[in-house]
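Example for tutorial group B:
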């Protein structure tokens, strides 16, 4: 494919950041860097949930359905920069569907990433009382979310989010305002289609590892520890992980990287058990190095993850993974080849799989090789760039795909067509706005 043709595509990238940096924020940054390092002009428009602390509940809820400020901001950016496509990551809660309306006014095609389940789940992670939950899936109004205070532990806020979901199902902005959507796994796609996302518009594009470190040689004997890297929160299965190490009759150490609401739980477990080492939040390179030198990574999530970002980070370092057997986690682990799966939430089964993989050096060596091979085949920057540009081309009308499930980024297409750049309905001089506009400017 011709990168020169690809580089003509100019992108307006929109994202609402979270209070605590998570996988969606990191993935947004990775995609922006992926595009910029390949010569694309990327204009960034961001909001941040820190704004919620100043807004208060009433004003925040008023912006959920349609935020005029975000609409005006995006209009200014389109008028000044004339992007070929608008790529949205997270628009909740401070951007709203207003950004779609701004793009539609200028005929700018929209690509929307769906990296969580907010379209049908108020808390976005499909967990209730420590168990996977999809009680709101398929309901016209998500009353279980309101009854259980699933969003910010507030009946009012949860009712507002449920109302927003009901409104979006009725208004259906995905029909004529969003051209292409993508999520990260086949499992997530199936859930989102069941929730009402048009099946003919949603594709699968996995995560990738930006600027990977030099991996640990697969034949190198790993150090005597397993590792968890991620947010210390309930849905990530921290309770299952701590319980498994209580049951584990092995000197194998557990290194925990990360912080979050359950940090105190991990701290107390580390005080009681010298095998558990909590290092808190660490920089990316240290995290990757720690994963690369470990025997294996553990992902004990109890939620319906859309992907499992740390899986491919482990694969990039030739490190196998032990993970839950539900959803996208299981989808991304080739059981018995790149790692092992255990029954979600079952600490006994997790402990058994840890013992199994720890005791079999031959299997561990084979898995290290297989993990690295899987990374090279599916999760490199170049592979992801090809997929992302393919989605842009679909949105812009350059290519068509009959079946989104068959999408492969137009593998084998020698060169993108030399179709003229997308023509937006823009008249008059561009206003004097900053390239990376901030809210309120």
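The residue assignment follows.
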């Amino acid at each position: 494919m011709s990168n020169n043709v690809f580089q003509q595509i100019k992108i307006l990238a929109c994202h609402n950041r979270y209070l605590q940096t998570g996988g969606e924020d990191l993935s947004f940054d990775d995609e922006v860097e992926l595009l910029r390092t390949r010569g694309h002009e990327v204009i960034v428009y961001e909001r941040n949930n820190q704004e919620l602390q100043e807004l208060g509940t009433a004003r925040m809820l008023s912006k959920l359905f349609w935020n005029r400020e975000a609409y005006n901001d995006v209009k200014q950016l389109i008028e000044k920069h004339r992007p070929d496509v608008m790529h949205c990551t997270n628009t909740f809660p401070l951007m709203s569907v207003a950004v779609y309306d701004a793009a539609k006014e200028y005929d700018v095609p929209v690509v929307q990433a769906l990296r969580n389940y907010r379209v049908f789940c108020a808390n976005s992670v499909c967990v209730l009382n420590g168990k996977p939950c999809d009680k709101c899936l398929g309901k016209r109004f998500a009353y279980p979310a309101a009854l259980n205070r699933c969003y910010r532990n507030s009946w009012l806020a949860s009712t507002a989010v449920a109302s927003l979901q009901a409104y979006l199902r009725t208004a259906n902005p995905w029909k004529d305002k969003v051209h292409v959507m993508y999520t990260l796994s086949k499992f997530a796609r199936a859930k989102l289609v069941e929730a009402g996302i048009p099946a003919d518009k949603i594709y699968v594009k996995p995560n990738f590892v930006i600027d990977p470190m030099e991996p640990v040689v697969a034949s190198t004997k790993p150090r005597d520890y397993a590792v968890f890297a991620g947010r210390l929160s309930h849905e990530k299965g921290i309770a299952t992980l701590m319980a498994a190490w209580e049951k584990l009759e092995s000197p194998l150490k557990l290194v925990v990287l990360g912080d979050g609401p359950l940090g105190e739980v991990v701290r107390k477990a580390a005080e009681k058990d010298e095998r558990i080492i909590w290092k808190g939040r660490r920089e990316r390179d240290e995290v990757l190095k720690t994963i690369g030198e470990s025997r294996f990574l553990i992902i004990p999530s109890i939620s319906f993850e859309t992907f499992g970002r740390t899986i491919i980070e482990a694969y990039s370092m030739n490190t196998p993974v032990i993970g839950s057997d539900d959803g996208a986690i299981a989808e991304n682990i080739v059981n018995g080849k790149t790692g092992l799966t255990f029954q979600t939430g079952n600490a006994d089964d997790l402990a058994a799989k840890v013992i199994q993989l720890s005791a079999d050096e031959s299997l561990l060596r084979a898995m290290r090789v297989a993990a690295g091979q899987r990374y090279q085949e599916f999760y490199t920057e170049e592979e992801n760039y090809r997929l992302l540009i393919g989605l842009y081309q679909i949105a812009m009308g350059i290519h068509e795909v009959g079946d989104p499930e068959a999408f492969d980024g137009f593998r084998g297409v020698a060169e993108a067509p030399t179709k003229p750049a997308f023509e937006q309905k823009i008249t008059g001089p561009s206003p004097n706005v900053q390239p990376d506009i901030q809210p309120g400017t």
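Residues 361-378 form the longest helix (18 residues). Compare this with the pattern of hydrophobic and polar residues in the output above.
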